[in-house]
Amino acid sequence: MADTDSISDSKEFYLNTPQVADPFPLKGCQNLDWGMKNRLAHIFSPKSGRTVMLAVDHGYFMGPTSGLERIDVTINPLLAYADTLMCTRGILRSITPPTFNKGVVLRASGGPSILKELSAEQVAVSMEDAIRLNVAAVAVQVFIGGEFESRSVHNMTQLVDAGNRFGVPVLGVTAVGKQLTRDAQYMRLATRICAELGATYVKTYFVDQGFETVTASCPVPIVIAGGKKMPEADALNMAFQAIDQGAAGVDMGRNIFQSEAPIAMIQAVRKVVHENMSPKEAFDYYRSLKESAPSR
Ligand code: 5RP
Question: What is the pTM of this model?
Answer without folding.
Answer: 0.95
